[in-house]
Amino acid sequence: MNKHIPQNASETTASESAAGGLLHIDLDALASNWRCLRDAAGGAEASAVVKANAYGTGIEKAVPALARAGCRTFFVAHVSEAVRTRAVAPDATIYVLNGLLPGSCAAYATSNLRPVLGSLEEIMEWAAFSRAEGRRFPAAIHVDTGMNRLGLTVREGLALPIRSELKDFEPSLLMSHFASAEEQDNPVNGQQIKAFTAVRNMLPDVPASLANSSGIFLREKPHFDLVRPGYALYGGNPTPDEENPMRPVVGLEGRIVQLRWIEAGETVGYSGRWTARDKRRIATVSVGYADGYSRSASARGQSGEATLSGMAIVASRLCPFAGTISMDLLAVDVTDVPEGDIARGVPVTLIGGALTIDEVGRRAGTIGYEILTSLGARYRRTYREAQD
Fold this sequence. Notes:
Belongs to the alanine racemase family. The protein is 25% helix and 22% strand. By secondary structure, the chain is an alpha/beta fold. The chain folds into 2 domains: 194 residues, Alpha-Beta Barrel (TIM Barrel), CATH 3.20.20.10; 135 residues, Lyase, Ornithine Decarboxylase, Chain A, domain 1 (Beta Barrel). The strands form 5 sheets. A 7-stranded parallel β-sheet has the order 3-4-5-6-7-8-9. Strands 1, 11, 14, 18, 19 and 20 form a 6-stranded mixed β-sheet that branches. A 3-stranded mixed β-sheet has the order 12-13-15, with no helix packed on it.
Protein backbone atom coordinates (compact mmCIF):
# COMPACT_ATOMS: atom_id res chain seq x y z
CA MET A 1 0.00 0.00 0.00
CA ASN A 2 1.28 3.52 -0.82
CA LYS A 3 1.26 6.34 1.64
CA HIS A 4 0.40 9.39 -0.41
CA ILE A 5 2.65 12.41 -0.32
CA PRO A 6 0.63 15.64 -0.39
CA GLN A 7 1.05 17.39 -3.73
CA ASN A 8 -0.95 20.60 -3.41
CA ALA A 9 -2.21 23.04 -0.83
CA SER A 10 -5.63 21.43 -0.49
CA GLU A 11 -4.02 18.13 0.55
CA THR A 12 -1.48 19.62 2.94
CA THR A 13 -1.99 18.88 6.63
CA ALA A 14 -1.73 21.60 9.27
CA SER A 15 1.60 20.27 10.52
CA GLU A 16 3.01 20.24 7.01
CA SER A 17 1.81 23.76 6.28
CA ALA A 18 3.68 24.96 9.35
CA ALA A 19 6.93 23.21 8.41
CA GLY A 20 9.79 25.25 7.01
CA GLY A 21 11.31 22.26 5.25
CA LEU A 22 9.64 19.18 3.76
CA LEU A 23 11.71 16.03 3.29
CA HIS A 24 10.11 13.44 0.99
CA ILE A 25 11.51 9.89 1.12
CA ASP A 26 10.44 7.33 -1.47
CA LEU A 27 10.73 3.88 0.11
CA ASP A 28 9.44 2.27 -3.07
CA ALA A 29 12.43 3.73 -4.94
CA LEU A 30 14.73 2.54 -2.15
CA ALA A 31 13.46 -1.03 -2.49
CA SER A 32 13.66 -0.81 -6.28
CA ASN A 33 17.28 0.35 -6.07
CA TRP A 34 18.14 -2.60 -3.82
CA ARG A 35 16.62 -5.01 -6.32
CA CYS A 36 18.56 -3.35 -9.16
CA LEU A 37 21.83 -3.74 -7.23
CA ARG A 38 20.96 -7.33 -6.29
CA ASP A 39 20.45 -8.17 -9.95
CA ALA A 40 23.68 -6.40 -10.96
CA ALA A 41 25.57 -8.51 -8.41
CA GLY A 42 24.70 -11.75 -10.17
CA GLY A 43 24.55 -14.60 -7.73
CA ALA A 44 26.08 -12.73 -4.79
CA GLU A 45 23.93 -11.81 -1.83
CA ALA A 46 23.01 -8.13 -1.73
CA SER A 47 23.17 -6.57 1.71
CA ALA A 48 22.38 -2.96 2.62
CA VAL A 49 24.50 -0.36 4.38
CA VAL A 50 22.19 1.61 6.68
CA LYS A 51 24.69 3.56 8.76
CA ALA A 52 24.20 7.27 9.48
CA ASN A 53 20.47 6.73 10.08
CA ALA A 54 20.15 4.95 6.73
CA TYR A 55 21.94 7.83 5.01
CA GLY A 56 19.51 10.30 6.53
CA THR A 57 16.33 8.51 5.47
CA GLY A 58 15.61 6.90 8.86
CA ILE A 59 16.60 3.42 10.03
CA GLU A 60 13.13 2.64 11.36
CA LYS A 61 11.58 3.26 7.92
CA ALA A 62 14.35 2.21 5.54
CA VAL A 63 15.31 -1.12 7.11
CA PRO A 64 11.79 -2.65 7.09
CA ALA A 65 11.33 -1.52 3.46
CA LEU A 66 14.59 -3.19 2.47
CA ALA A 67 13.75 -6.31 4.47
CA ARG A 68 10.38 -6.61 2.70
CA ALA A 69 12.24 -6.37 -0.61
CA GLY A 70 14.35 -9.36 0.43
CA CYS A 71 17.42 -7.91 2.14
CA ARG A 72 18.68 -10.13 4.96
CA THR A 73 22.02 -8.57 5.91
CA PHE A 74 22.67 -5.01 7.11
CA PHE A 75 25.79 -3.01 7.90
CA VAL A 76 26.01 -0.06 10.30
CA ALA A 77 28.88 1.92 11.79
CA HIS A 78 28.06 1.89 15.51
CA VAL A 79 26.46 -0.45 18.03
CA SER A 80 23.75 2.13 18.74
CA GLU A 81 22.72 2.00 15.06
CA ALA A 82 22.82 -1.80 15.17
CA VAL A 83 20.47 -1.91 18.16
CA ARG A 84 17.98 0.30 16.31
CA THR A 85 18.28 -1.93 13.24
CA ARG A 86 17.75 -5.06 15.33
CA ALA A 87 14.53 -3.57 16.75
CA VAL A 88 12.96 -3.42 13.28
CA ALA A 89 14.74 -6.43 11.73
CA PRO A 90 14.70 -9.12 14.43
CA ASP A 91 15.85 -11.93 12.13
CA ALA A 92 18.49 -10.05 10.13
CA THR A 93 22.25 -10.45 10.19
CA ILE A 94 23.74 -7.16 11.37
CA TYR A 95 27.41 -6.20 11.14
CA VAL A 96 29.04 -3.22 12.89
CA LEU A 97 31.72 -1.76 10.61
CA ASN A 98 33.68 0.40 13.04
CA GLY A 99 35.15 -2.54 14.87
CA LEU A 100 35.29 -3.75 18.43
CA LEU A 101 35.92 -1.15 21.09
CA PRO A 102 37.61 -2.48 24.25
CA GLY A 103 35.15 -4.06 26.66
CA SER A 104 32.20 -3.96 24.26
CA CYS A 105 31.84 -7.67 23.46
CA ALA A 106 28.84 -8.20 25.71
CA ALA A 107 26.90 -5.43 23.96
CA TYR A 108 27.24 -7.32 20.67
CA ALA A 109 26.23 -10.66 22.17
CA THR A 110 23.18 -9.21 23.94
CA SER A 111 21.61 -7.99 20.69
CA ASN A 112 22.99 -10.75 18.44
CA LEU A 113 25.27 -8.37 16.54
CA ARG A 114 28.45 -9.15 14.65
CA PRO A 115 31.54 -6.94 14.95
CA VAL A 116 33.81 -6.36 11.97
CA LEU A 117 37.21 -7.18 13.48
CA GLY A 118 39.93 -5.00 12.00
CA SER A 119 43.03 -5.80 14.04
CA LEU A 120 44.73 -8.72 15.73
CA GLU A 121 43.91 -7.13 19.08
CA GLU A 122 40.21 -7.16 18.24
CA ILE A 123 40.42 -10.76 17.06
CA MET A 124 42.08 -11.81 20.32
CA GLU A 125 39.50 -9.97 22.44
CA TRP A 126 36.54 -11.48 20.55
CA ALA A 127 38.11 -14.95 20.75
CA ALA A 128 38.70 -14.59 24.49
CA PHE A 129 35.08 -13.48 25.01
CA SER A 130 33.82 -16.47 23.01
CA ARG A 131 35.97 -18.87 25.02
CA ALA A 132 34.74 -17.40 28.30
CA GLU A 133 31.11 -17.70 27.18
CA GLY A 134 31.60 -21.19 25.77
CA ARG A 135 30.19 -20.24 22.40
CA ARG A 136 31.67 -19.50 18.96
CA PHE A 137 30.17 -16.08 18.34
CA PRO A 138 30.23 -14.95 14.68
CA ALA A 139 32.22 -11.95 13.45
CA ALA A 140 33.58 -10.54 10.22
CA ILE A 141 37.30 -10.06 9.62
CA HIS A 142 38.37 -6.93 7.76
CA VAL A 143 41.59 -6.92 5.75
CA ASP A 144 42.90 -3.58 4.50
CA THR A 145 43.87 -3.78 0.82
CA GLY A 146 44.41 -0.10 0.06
CA MET A 147 42.41 2.29 2.24
CA ASN A 148 44.86 2.47 5.17
CA ARG A 149 41.96 3.12 7.46
CA LEU A 150 40.71 -0.03 9.22
CA GLY A 151 41.66 -3.66 8.85
CA LEU A 152 44.45 -6.18 9.17
CA THR A 153 47.39 -5.80 6.83
CA VAL A 154 47.47 -8.13 3.84
CA ARG A 155 50.39 -9.93 5.45
CA GLU A 156 48.36 -10.48 8.62
CA GLY A 157 45.44 -11.63 6.50
CA LEU A 158 47.53 -14.20 4.67
CA ALA A 159 48.63 -15.59 8.05
CA LEU A 160 45.09 -15.94 9.42
CA PRO A 161 44.88 -19.73 8.91
CA ILE A 162 47.59 -20.27 11.52
CA ARG A 163 45.90 -18.08 14.13
CA SER A 164 44.57 -20.29 16.90
CA GLU A 165 41.94 -17.68 17.81
CA LEU A 166 39.92 -18.53 14.69
CA LYS A 167 38.98 -21.80 16.37
CA ASP A 168 37.37 -19.91 19.25
CA PHE A 169 34.86 -17.86 17.23
CA GLU A 170 33.06 -18.16 13.90
CA PRO A 171 34.63 -16.10 11.07
CA SER A 172 31.34 -15.44 9.25
CA LEU A 173 32.65 -12.98 6.65
CA LEU A 174 35.99 -11.91 5.18
CA MET A 175 35.84 -8.38 3.81
CA SER A 176 37.77 -5.43 2.48
CA HIS A 177 36.77 -2.05 1.05
CA PHE A 178 37.51 -0.35 -2.27
CA ALA A 179 39.24 3.03 -2.17
CA SER A 180 38.44 4.20 -5.73
CA ALA A 181 35.73 1.95 -7.17
CA GLU A 182 33.87 4.93 -8.67
CA GLU A 183 36.86 5.36 -11.02
CA GLN A 184 36.45 2.48 -13.46
CA ASP A 185 40.00 2.66 -14.85
CA ASN A 186 41.88 3.33 -11.62
CA PRO A 187 44.63 0.67 -11.36
CA VAL A 188 44.20 0.58 -7.57
CA ASN A 189 40.98 -1.39 -8.10
CA GLY A 190 42.83 -4.26 -9.75
CA GLN A 191 45.51 -4.21 -7.07
CA GLN A 192 42.90 -4.45 -4.33
CA ILE A 193 41.06 -7.29 -6.07
CA LYS A 194 44.33 -9.22 -6.42
CA ALA A 195 45.32 -8.69 -2.77
CA PHE A 196 41.88 -9.59 -1.46
CA THR A 197 41.67 -12.70 -3.64
CA ALA A 198 45.00 -13.89 -2.24
CA VAL A 199 43.69 -13.60 1.33
CA ARG A 200 40.36 -15.13 0.41
CA ASN A 201 42.16 -18.14 -1.04
CA MET A 202 43.68 -18.76 2.38
CA LEU A 203 40.18 -18.93 3.93
CA PRO A 204 38.12 -20.44 1.11
CA ASP A 205 35.30 -21.60 3.37
CA VAL A 206 34.57 -18.11 4.73
CA PRO A 207 32.12 -15.99 2.68
CA ALA A 208 33.87 -12.99 1.13
CA SER A 209 32.81 -9.40 0.42
CA LEU A 210 34.64 -6.58 -1.34
CA ALA A 211 32.24 -4.58 -3.52
CA ASN A 212 30.53 -1.39 -2.38
CA SER A 213 27.98 0.43 -4.58
CA SER A 214 30.44 1.38 -7.31
CA GLY A 215 32.37 -1.87 -6.94
CA ILE A 216 29.29 -3.78 -8.09
CA PHE A 217 29.63 -2.10 -11.51
CA LEU A 218 33.37 -2.61 -12.05
CA ARG A 219 34.06 -4.58 -15.21
CA GLU A 220 36.00 -7.17 -13.20
CA LYS A 221 32.74 -8.01 -11.34
CA PRO A 222 34.41 -8.51 -7.95
CA HIS A 223 31.16 -9.62 -6.34
CA PHE A 224 32.44 -12.64 -4.41
CA ASP A 225 29.72 -13.91 -2.04
CA LEU A 226 28.17 -10.67 -0.78
CA VAL A 227 28.05 -7.05 -1.96
CA ARG A 228 27.59 -4.05 0.34
CA PRO A 229 25.78 -1.19 -1.44
CA GLY A 230 25.18 2.01 0.47
CA TYR A 231 25.06 5.32 -1.40
CA ALA A 232 23.43 3.90 -4.53
CA LEU A 233 20.51 2.55 -2.49
CA TYR A 234 19.55 6.13 -1.67
CA GLY A 235 19.75 7.42 -5.25
CA GLY A 236 23.43 8.35 -5.55
CA ASN A 237 25.11 7.54 -8.84
CA PRO A 238 27.48 4.55 -8.50
CA THR A 239 28.74 5.10 -12.07
CA PRO A 240 29.66 8.82 -12.16
CA ASP A 241 30.85 8.72 -15.78
CA GLU A 242 27.60 7.18 -16.97
CA GLU A 243 23.87 7.70 -16.57
CA ASN A 244 22.65 7.00 -13.05
CA PRO A 245 20.89 3.60 -12.96
CA MET A 246 19.30 4.40 -9.59
CA ARG A 247 15.94 5.99 -8.85
CA PRO A 248 15.96 9.15 -6.69
CA VAL A 249 14.89 8.46 -3.12
CA VAL A 250 15.10 11.83 -1.38
CA GLY A 251 13.42 15.10 -2.22
CA LEU A 252 13.73 18.31 -0.22
CA GLU A 253 11.55 21.40 -0.34
CA GLY A 254 11.88 24.61 1.63
CA ARG A 255 9.09 27.14 2.10
CA ILE A 256 9.39 30.78 1.16
CA VAL A 257 8.86 32.91 4.25
CA GLN A 258 9.42 36.32 2.67
CA LEU A 259 9.86 38.02 -0.71
CA ARG A 260 11.56 41.35 -1.24
CA TRP A 261 13.05 43.56 -3.94
CA ILE A 262 16.53 44.98 -3.44
CA GLU A 263 18.27 47.69 -5.39
CA ALA A 264 21.53 47.62 -7.32
CA GLY A 265 24.52 47.65 -4.96
CA GLU A 266 22.67 46.14 -1.99
CA THR A 267 24.02 42.97 -0.40
CA VAL A 268 22.40 39.80 0.92
CA GLY A 269 23.36 37.78 3.97
CA TYR A 270 26.08 37.82 6.60
CA SER A 271 29.23 39.79 5.73
CA GLY A 272 27.62 41.10 2.51
CA ARG A 273 29.42 38.62 0.28
CA TRP A 274 26.80 38.78 -2.50
CA THR A 275 25.87 42.03 -4.24
CA ALA A 276 22.96 42.81 -6.54
CA ARG A 277 24.24 44.13 -9.88
CA ASP A 278 20.79 45.54 -10.64
CA LYS A 279 17.33 45.43 -9.09
CA ARG A 280 16.69 41.84 -7.91
CA ARG A 281 13.91 39.93 -6.21
CA ILE A 282 14.97 37.75 -3.30
CA ALA A 283 13.06 34.86 -1.74
CA THR A 284 14.03 33.91 1.81
CA VAL A 285 13.56 30.17 2.42
CA SER A 286 13.10 28.55 5.83
CA VAL A 287 16.03 26.09 5.56
CA GLY A 288 19.59 26.60 6.77
CA TYR A 289 22.71 24.82 7.87
CA ALA A 290 21.05 23.78 11.14
CA ASP A 291 18.79 21.67 8.94
CA GLY A 292 21.83 20.03 7.38
CA TYR A 293 21.89 22.10 4.20
CA SER A 294 25.57 22.79 3.65
CA ARG A 295 26.78 26.35 4.27
CA SER A 296 29.42 25.73 1.62
CA ALA A 297 26.67 26.10 -1.01
CA SER A 298 26.55 29.85 -0.23
CA ALA A 299 26.74 32.32 -3.12
CA ARG A 300 29.38 35.05 -3.37
CA GLY A 301 30.17 37.79 -5.82
CA GLN A 302 27.56 39.64 -7.87
CA SER A 303 24.20 38.58 -9.24
CA GLY A 304 24.50 37.07 -12.70
CA GLU A 305 28.06 35.83 -12.23
CA ALA A 306 28.71 32.23 -13.25
CA THR A 307 29.93 31.00 -9.87
CA LEU A 308 29.39 27.53 -8.45
CA SER A 309 26.86 27.73 -5.64
CA GLY A 310 23.58 26.26 -4.55
CA MET A 311 20.40 26.52 -6.58
CA ALA A 312 16.69 25.97 -6.08
CA ILE A 313 13.92 25.07 -8.48
CA VAL A 314 11.20 27.70 -8.24
CA ALA A 315 8.12 27.38 -10.45
CA SER A 316 10.06 24.99 -12.73
CA ARG A 317 12.98 27.44 -13.06
CA LEU A 318 16.51 26.96 -11.75
CA CYS A 319 17.31 29.94 -9.52
CA PRO A 320 20.69 30.67 -7.90
CA PHE A 321 21.27 31.23 -4.22
CA ALA A 322 22.07 34.74 -3.03
CA GLY A 323 24.50 35.35 -0.18
CA THR A 324 25.63 33.24 2.75
CA ILE A 325 23.45 30.42 4.02
CA SER A 326 22.64 31.10 7.67
CA MET A 327 21.59 28.80 10.48
CA ASP A 328 17.86 28.73 9.70
CA LEU A 329 17.47 30.53 6.38
CA LEU A 330 18.84 30.79 2.87
CA ALA A 331 18.14 33.29 0.10
CA VAL A 332 17.34 32.63 -3.55
CA ASP A 333 17.43 35.09 -6.45
CA VAL A 334 13.98 34.66 -8.04
CA THR A 335 14.01 37.73 -10.25
CA ASP A 336 13.39 35.66 -13.39
CA VAL A 337 10.32 33.91 -11.95
CA PRO A 338 7.03 35.51 -13.07
CA GLU A 339 5.48 37.33 -10.13
CA GLY A 340 2.25 35.36 -10.42
CA ASP A 341 4.10 32.06 -9.97
CA ILE A 342 5.58 32.79 -6.57
CA ALA A 343 4.28 33.82 -3.17
CA ARG A 344 4.94 33.55 0.54
CA GLY A 345 4.51 29.97 1.72
CA VAL A 346 5.21 28.40 -1.66
CA PRO A 347 7.64 25.45 -1.49
CA VAL A 348 10.79 25.52 -3.60
CA THR A 349 12.82 22.43 -4.51
CA LEU A 350 16.28 22.11 -2.97
CA ILE A 351 16.80 18.42 -3.81
CA GLY A 352 14.89 16.90 -6.69
CA GLY A 353 14.56 17.02 -10.46
CA ALA A 354 17.70 18.49 -12.01
CA LEU A 355 19.05 19.05 -8.50
CA THR A 356 20.04 15.46 -7.86
CA ILE A 357 21.90 14.44 -4.72
CA ASP A 358 25.13 14.37 -6.72
CA GLU A 359 24.48 17.79 -8.27
CA VAL A 360 23.62 19.38 -4.91
CA GLY A 361 26.84 17.95 -3.49
CA ARG A 362 28.86 19.27 -6.43
CA ARG A 363 27.41 22.74 -6.05
CA ALA A 364 28.27 22.71 -2.37
CA GLY A 365 31.84 21.68 -3.10
CA THR A 366 31.33 18.31 -1.44
CA ILE A 367 29.76 14.93 -2.26
CA GLY A 368 26.22 13.66 -2.26
CA TYR A 369 27.05 11.33 0.64
CA GLU A 370 27.56 14.34 2.92
CA ILE A 371 24.36 16.00 1.74
CA LEU A 372 22.31 12.86 2.46
CA THR A 373 23.80 12.08 5.84
CA SER A 374 23.45 15.67 7.03
CA LEU A 375 19.70 15.87 6.52
CA GLY A 376 18.38 17.28 9.77
CA ALA A 377 15.68 16.35 12.24
CA ARG A 378 13.68 19.57 11.86
CA TYR A 379 12.19 18.68 8.50
CA ARG A 380 8.63 17.47 8.25
CA ARG A 381 9.19 13.98 6.77
CA THR A 382 6.78 12.20 4.46
CA TYR A 383 7.27 8.65 3.23
CA ARG A 384 6.02 6.90 0.15
CA GLU A 385 5.74 3.32 1.28
CA ALA A 386 7.29 0.52 -0.74
CA GLN A 387 4.86 -1.48 -2.83
CA ASP A 388 4.51 -5.17 -2.08
